[in-house]
Amino acid sequence: MNTKYEEAIKKLEKYNQKHVINILETIEENKKENLINQILDLNFESIINLYEELSNKKEIKIDNIEPIKAIKKEQLDDKELNKYIKLGEDIIKSNKFALATMSGGQGTRLGFNGPKGTFKVNIEPKPKYLFEILADSLKEINKKYNVTIPWYIMTSEENNDSIEDFFNKNNYFDYDKSYVKFFKQGNLPLLSKEGKILIDENYNIKQAADGNGGIFSSMYKNGIIDDIKNRDIKWVFIGSIDNILLKVADPLLIGISESKGIQIATKSIPKNSPQEKVGAICKQNGSIKVIEYSEMPKEIAEARDENNELIYGESHIMCNLFSSEALQKLGKEKLPYHIAFKKYNYIDENGKFVVAENPNAYKFESFIFDSFTYFNDIAVLRGKREEDFAPIKNKEGVDSPSTAVELYNNYKKSIIN
Questions:
Q1: Cis (ω within 30 of 0) for the bond into 336?
Q2: Of 307, 316, 280, 381, which Cα lies nearest the Cα of 73?
Q3: Backbone CA torsion sign across 331, 335, 340, 345
Q4: SS3 for 278?
Q5: What's the pLDDT tens digit per position in 204-247?
Q6: Residues 6 or more apart from 259 whose CB is under 8 A from it?
Q7: Which DSSP category does 16 fall into?
Q8: Nearest CA to 222 among 147, 157, 131?
Q9: How many C-beta atoms surround the C-beta of residue 139 within 10 A?
Q10: What is the DSSP letter of 57?
Q11: Res. 58: pLDDT tops 70
């Protein structure tokens, strides 16, 4: 313990983290030993280099961009449409398709204490949990094609145990548990504006999930990509837990991708206004990109074509399809990190718990759409908001349970009638 303590002190001094030394001197032995082990395990050089690179990053320059053409279902003739759908259905029927769900987040923005996937929404004819809605969608596909689709669920350090307990208590919503695998998303430490690590109320180094782009390395490290290979799966659809209109297995999207011989595809919807807070799928310097709404210059965001459609109006809605080869490639790549300045509570150097009233720490995360730049081509299938996109992000207002439920109920009524 003494040797480890001395090593930890040297490391903290080397990387200018002396505030943690004061905390170590005041806490009980078991917590001290745990924190020392975390200090020794942490790659300070890597995280501080990331902090210095991103916190001083210059303003992003948006130039050399061009729109990307989406495939519109209504513009396909019957022969093309039937060909693509048959190809997609054959992939599903041949047990070469799987679903991966990103559910590492908590329901904090919803005012809900627990993993977001365990949030219940008041859809018709009866309320269901978000995980339950997905399970039921999968069971419908399984029944239609006489298969059982493997379901990979990305959790986090924070919510993994709660999610696994939830599935056990609900008997996996009658889904074959041998086809369900959980894996944890990676974490990165939070740093203050001055580049200091934060310590949480339990005297751990405060960390946060490394962004949805971390799904590839997490799948690789946790053996999910090996499982995909062993099951001879060809296509994996990756979607988020909070879109209750998510089409978990769209034969048209799968068939288009298979037909074109490409490795990645995505479904978009047209932006409802230039100011809508969604990223736009396009190309920049010849590479496939998604440019965030906050980064898109106003004149470009508002530009329209001869049909009065937004030129850069293909929204990325987290409906992405990857070939197994693409996942194997991305599992070994390091996607670029982005930085966000957010509000986090912490223990100060005097051992006092501080409730942050304003943003005080940098969070580092990668985005799944940054994986697109590793490929030469992508298929973009334009969907419809009323059929494909009913997200639950906020407690009230836009993208809230009430707006999502209305979209969901209206869609279900439309396909019955």
A1: no
A2: 381
A3: positive
A4: coil
A5: 999 999 999 999 999 999 999 999 999 999 999 999 999 999 99
A6: 83, 84, 87
A7: T
A8: 157
A9: 16
A10: P
A11: no
| Dihedral-angle region of residue 354 (phi above 0 means left; psi in -120 to 50 means alpha; beta otherwise) | beta
Which of 165-179, 213-227, 276-290 has the lowest average pLDDT?
276-290
The answer to whether the beta carbons of residues 135 and 149 sit under 8 Å apart is no
Token pair listed for 271: 């932006």
Q: Give CA separation, 251 vs 87, 247, 334, in Å.
A: 7, 10, 31
User: Does the domain spanning 42-416 belong to CATH 3.90.550.10?
Assistant: yes
Measure the N-to-C terminal CA separation of the chain; round to a whole number of Å: 70
- 336 burial (CB, 10 Å; 0-12 / 13-18 / 19+) is exposed
> 70 phi and psi, to 5 degrees?
-90, 150
Residues contacting 358, CB < 8 A, separation 6+: 343
Q: Where are the domains of the chain?
A: 42-416
Cβ(335)–Cβ(366) under 8 Å? Answer: yes
Crossing angle of helices 130-145/78-93, nearest 10°? 100
* Residue 222: both structure tokens together: 């946790």
Residue 1 scores a pLDDT above 60 = no
Look up the pTM and report it. 0.94
Residue type, 254: I
